[in-house]
Amino acid sequence: xxxxxIGNIGGAIxxxxxxxxxxxxxxxxxxxxxxxxxxxLLADLGKSSQQADGALNDLSTNGGADLxxxxxxxxxxxxxxxxxxxxxNRLVDAYSEIFRMQV
Length: 103
Hints:
This protein is mainly alpha-helical and 103 residues long. It has helices at 7-17, 27-60, 67-100.
């Protein structure tokens, strides 16, 4: 069983945050890029969850899965979920802060 590292999740975070933007780049494209990065993060979370479920299913049906691989995939899924929740919390906090600003 191949368990991917959190590098793909880190890449999704980096793309959601975006890099240094040029002065002429519009805010809408940055927001769109951030939305795509968060969507990619959620897609990676779904893949991680499916891998963990498949590994657990193989272990329970004696499909030849190694217990070590099952535990690793389950922990990776848990870490991915915790990361997604923390990013969501930060986004909600940022939205709330912007909403409270007076114009």
